[in-house]
Design a protein that fits this description.
single chain, 142 residues, mainly alpha, 7 helices, 0% strand, globular
Length: 142
């Protein structure tokens, strides 16, 4: 009986933590959609700090990158997207992050690096749903 009670308490705590991280994530996405990028970055960063092992962490890093991209701070965007590509490689956001790294390098005028990232994307994620876009950007970089 005690063992079942302990398991129930643990499950309730996990669900509460998950609800809190989801709430933070939704708040940050709302800021992003309202183009309040600095506030979105702050809330996404808070989520990552409070819930470092949460399943939403890769998405939070990705959206931090999107915020910096929209703020035209491509160097900081690369760092956020690189975090997804390097440490959350199995995340659904990983191929999108690699694409955005390539686009950031393109915006920074680092065309060789942009080409390398986009080529890496093609090799690593050959079934990527946005491959036509990748090929378009690679063609522009020739």
């Amino acid at each position: 009986m005690k063992k079942n009670l302990i398991i129930l308490i643990i499950l309730l705590c996990v669900c509460a933590l998950s609800a809190q991280s989801i709430s933070l994530y939704n708040k940050a996405r709302s800021y992003y959609k309202s183009e309040k990028y600095e506030k979105a970055i702050s809330v996404f960063t808070d989520l990552i700090s409070k819930y470092p092992n949460d399943k939403l962490v890769p998405n939070a890093h990705y959206w931090i990158g999107e915020c910096y991209y929209d703020l035209d701070d491509y160097a900081k965007a690369v760092k956020a997207f690189q975090n997804v590509a390097d440490f959350h490689f199995d995340s659904e956001k990983a191929p999108d992050a690699v694409l955005k790294i390539g686009l950031c390098y393109k915006k920074l005028g680092l065309n060789d690096q942009a080409r390398l990232e986009l080529t890496r994307l093609k090799k690593t994620f050959p079934d990527y749903e946005r491959m036509k876009l990748v090929n378009k950007f690679l063609k522009e970089l020739q």
